[in-house]
Design goal:
Helix 3 packs parallel to helix 4 and helix 5 crosses helix 6. The strands form two sheets. The protein has a seven-stranded mixed beta sheet, with helices on both faces. The radius of gyration is 18 Å and the shape is globular. It is α/β, with parallel strands linked by helices. It has one domain: 2-enoyl-CoA Hydratase, Chain A, domain 1. The chain is 42% helix and 17% strand.
C-alpha cells in the first residue's frame, strides 16, 4: 500500500493511498462541525480533484474522532448569524463556496465518493454523506436531518438526495421530526450500504475503493455521471432550499432554537 500526504491543510487532511484519495475532516473536538475555514478548504480540495484524475480514481470522506460531521458550527451562528445564509441580491450566497454548495461539488468531481461514516452525521454532515455515491457506516454511526430542530429547512441538497435515496416518506419522517437514527435503522431504509465494526471502517472503505479503482477509470467516471444524470441538478435544489430557508434566519423561533441548544434547555417557540 502506497500512502502519500498531499496538499497541506489546517482543518482537514488529504492522503493518497494507491489510487484513492482520503479526505479527513479534522475538527474532532467539535465533532467536525463546519465553520467558514474548513468549508473553504473543503471546496478548495474538491476543485483540485478533477485535475488529479486518473491518478486519484476514488475519494473517501471521513471524520476525525467520534463524529463524521455534526453540520454547521452553531457557535458561529449564535454569535454572528449564519455564515452560509444566502444574502439578498446575491444568487450564489457570499462566495459560492458555502456549506450548501459542497454537495454539488462532490457530485461534479469525476471520482466516485465513499462516505466512511465513523460517528454522528448530522445536519449538513448528513447531507454530505448523502451526496456521496456509497455510504459505509460504523456500528457507532448516527444520522439526523436535524435542521427543523434548529429552526431551518434541509440544506446542502438534502431535500433532494434524501428522497432520491430513501423515498418521500422516509425523507418526510426524518426532516419533519429531526430525530436521530442509528446505523441499523439507516441501513434498513437504504441510507447505508454496509455496517462494520468501528475498527474495520477505514479498511472496508478502502477495500471498496480498491475494487472500484481496479476498473477502467474512464468507464468508472462515466458510470458515476450516468447514474446521476436522471436526477435533479442539485444547484437547483440548493436554490430552492435557500428560497425557503433564508427567511427563517430572521425569525424569533430560529434564534430560540439555536440558543436553547447551546444553553442545553428546552426551546419555547412562538411561531414567529
Amino acid at each position: 500500500m502506497q500512502v502519500k500526504r498531499m496538499q497541506k491543510y489546517e482543518k482537514l487532511s488529504f492522503e493518497k493511498i494507491n489510487y484513492t484519495g482520503v479526505i479527513t475532516l479534522r475538527r474532532g473536538k467539535v465533532m467536525n462541525a463546519l465553520n467558514r475555514e474548513i468549508t473553504l478548504e473543503f471546496h478548495s480540495l474538491l476543485e483540485k480533484l478533477p485535475e488529479m484524475f486518473p491518478e486519484i480514481r476514488v475519494v473517501v470522506i471521513t471524520g476525525e474522532g467520534r463524529g463524521f460531521c455534526s453540520g454547521a458550527d452553531l457557535s458561529r451562528m449564535a454569535s454572528g448569524g449564519s455564515e452560509n445564509r444566502k444574502l439578498p441580491g446575491n444568487s450564489s450566497g457570499q462566495s459560492g463556496n458555502r456549506i450548501q454548495e459542497l454537495a454539488s461539488s462532490i457530485r461534479r468531481i469525476p471520482q466516485p465518493v465513499i462516505a466512511a461514516v465513523n460517528g454522528a452525521a448530522v445536519g449538513a454532515g448528513f447531507s454530505i454523506a448523502l451526496a456521496c455515491d456509497i455510504r459505509i457506516a460504523s456500528e457507532e454511526a448516527k444520522f439526523s436531518a436535524i435542521f427543523v430542530r434548529r429552526g431551518l429547512v434541509p440544506d446542502t441538497a438534502a431535500s433532494s438526495t434524501l428522497s432520491e435515496i430513501a423515498g418521500h416518506s422516509v425523507a418526510a419522517e426524518m426532516c419533519l421530526t429531526g430525530r436521530i437514527y442509528d446505523a441499523e435503522w439507516a441501513k434498513s431504509h437504504g441510507l447505508v450500504n454496509h455496517i462494520v465494526k468501528p475498527q474495520f471502517l477505514m479498511s472496508e472503505a478502502l477495500k471498496f475503493a480498491e475494487d472500484i479503482s481496479s476498473n477502467p477509470p474512464l468507464a468508472v467516471r462515466n458510470t458515476k455521471q450516468l447514474l446521476r444524470s436522471g436526477y435533479r441538478d442539485w444547484v437547483d435544489t440548493v436554490s430552492d432550499e435557500d428560497h425557503y430557508g433564508s427567511p427563517l434566519y430572521d425569525t424569533y423561533d430560529q434564534k430560540e432554537a439555536v440558543e436553547a441548544f447551546l444553553e442545553k434547555r428546552d426551546p419555547i417557540y412562538r411561531g414567529d
